[in-house]
Specification:
Elements: E1 4-9, H1 17-30, E2 34-40, H2 42-49, H3 54-57, E3 60-64, H4 75-80, H5 86-95, E4 101-104, H6 108-118, E5 129-135, E6 141-145, H7 155-173, E7 179-183, H8 194-205, E8 210-215, E9 227-229, H9 232-254, H10 267-282, H11 284-288, E10 298-301, E11 306-309, H12 316-331, H13 334-344
Parallel strand pairs: 1-2, 1-4, 2-3, 4-11, 6-9, 7-8, 7-9
Antiparallel strand pairs: 5-6, 5-10, 10-11
Helix pairs in contact: 1-2, 1-12, 5-6, 7-8, 7-13
Length: 345
C-alpha cells in the first residue's frame, strides 16, 4: 500500500469539525500509510487534537483558514468570494501536489465549479459527473451517475457518463463488461425526453459498452444494471429518495419499542412490527447493505485528480467512508484509468 496525503475541508457540511475531525482521526488509526491536511479554523480544530498521541499528531497538518463558502447568493458570487476558504485551499493543495485527493461536505455546485477551474477536466470530458455506489438486494453494488452536478445533460454528455461509469465499474467491481442502463420513465424505446432517447442511440453504437436499455426507478436496487446513467436532476432526486427511505426504515425499526403518539396502538402495528423485527434479525446482513452511511461520498468523475463530495448531513461513519473512498480511488489510479480508457474508445 502506497503512502498518500488527503486534503480535508473540515468546515464543510452541517456539523463541521464535530464530525469531520473524529472521522479523520479514525481514518488515520485504520490506515497507517495515510497523512491528512486539515483545512479550517484552527481554534475549532485544536480541541479535537489536544489529547492526541504523538504517533497520530505527526501525520496531521492543520492549515488555518477563517473563511467558509456559503452559496447563498448564487454560484458565481460564491466562486468569486472563495479565495482563502477551507474548500478552495483544500482543492489548491491537490492542484499543487501537496495532497492527492480532496474531500468536502460543502456546497456541491461550488465544489464542482472550483474543481473544474483549479484541477481541470480530463481531455475530452465536457462535464465531470457525480458518481456513487448504491447497494442492491443481491448483496452486490451498482454505480449511478450523475447525482446532481449537471442538471441538464445533452445526449453526448450522457454518453460520456456511460463511458466513464463503465470504466469506474470495471475497476470498482472487477468486471469485464459491465451492464449499462439509462434511467427513464419506462423501458419502451419511445418513452422519455428527447435527450435520453438520443443518448440511447449513441450508446447503442458503442460496441465497447454493454448497453442493456432503459431502467425504471423501481429497479434501481435490483441489480439489473452495473452502471445507471442519468442527468443530475433525476439522479439527485432518485438517490435522496433511496437514502430517505432507508433511513426512515432503520429509524422505524429502531424506535419500534416506543409507544409514540404518532404510531398509536393499532392492530397494524401489532402485526407488522414483530414481522419487521424477525426479518431484520434473520436478514440483518442484507438490511445493513442499505445503510446510507456505507455509501456516503460521491466522486467528481472526469477530473484530473480525485475529489469526493460528502453529504452535508453525514455523520462520523459516513464521512469516514468518504475518506476511505478517496484513498481507494487514488491508490487505484482511477483518473488515469478513465483517461486511458476514453482514449481507447
Amino acid at each position: 500500500m502506497s503512502r498518500l496525503t488527503l486534503a480535508l475541508d473540515v468546515m464543510g457540511g452541517d456539523f463541521g469539525p464535530r464530525i469531520t475531525i473524529p472521522a479523520s482521526l479514525q481514518a488515520l488509526e485504520q490506515d497507517p500509510m495515510l497523512d491528512i491536511l486539515l483545512f479550517g479554523d484552527s481554534q475549532l480544530i485544536s480541541p479535537y487534537l489536544a489529547n492526541l498521541s504523538h504517533r497520530l499528531r505527526q501525520r496531521i497538518s492543520v492549515c488555518h483558514c477563517e473563511r467558509v463558502i456559503k452559496n447563498e447568493q448564487g454560484l458565481s458570487h460564491a466562486l468569486r468570494r472563495s479565495k482563502g476558504s477551507s474548500m478552495r485551499l483544500a482543492i489548491e493543495a491537490v492542484r499543487d501536489k501537496r495532497a492527492q485527493a480532496c474531500i468536502s461536505g460543502g456546497d456541491t455546485a461550488v465544489l464542482m465549479g472550483l474543481a473544474k477551474v483549479l484541477l481541470q477536466p480530463l481531455p475530452g470530458i465536457q462535464r465531470p459527473a457525480l458518481v456513487s455506489n448504491i447497494p442492491t438486494i443481491d448483496g452486490k453494488q451498482s454505480i449511478m451517475l450523475d447525482l446532481g452536478a449537471n442538471i441538464d445533460c445533452s445526449a453526448e454528455t450522457l454518453l460520456q457518463f456511460a463511458q466513464m461509469g463503465a470504466i469506474f465499474a470495471e475497476n470498482c467491481f472487477d468486471l469485464v463488461y459491465p451492464r449499462v442502463a439509462l434511467l427513464n420513465i419506462g423501458i419502451e424505446e419511445l418513452k422519455g425526453l428527447k435527450n435520453i432517447r438520443d443518448a440511447a442511440e449513441l450508446i447503442q453504437r458503442q460496441t465497447q459498452l454493454n448497453y442493456i436499455g432503459y431502467i425504471e426507478g423501481n429497479y434501481l436496487l435490483n441489480g439489473h444494471a452495473d452502471v445507471i446513467v442519468c442527468d443530475g436532476f433525476a439522479g439527485n432526486i432518485a438517490l435522496k429518495t433511496l437514502e430517505g427511505t432507508a433511513k426512515n426504515l432503520f429509524t422505524l425499526l429502531k424506535n419500534s419499542g416506543n409507544d409514540r403518539p404518532s404510531w398509536g396502538k393499532t392492530a397494524l402495528k401489532k402485526i407488522l412490527l414483530p414481522c419487521a423485527k424477525y426479518l431484520l434479525k434473520k436478514y440483518f446482513k442484507q438490511f445493513s447493505q442499505f445503510n446510507p452511511d456505507k455509501y456516503n461520498g460521491a466522486s467528481l468523475l472526469g477530473l484530473t485528480s480525485v475529489v469526493v463530495k460528502s453529504h452535508g448531513s453525514a455523520n462520523q461513519a459516513a464521512f469516514l467512508y468518504a475518506i476511505q473512498q478517496a484513498a481507494w480511488q487514488v491508490r487505484s489510479e482511477i483518473p488515469n484509468k478513465i483517461s486511458s480508457g476514453l482514449e481507447k474508445k
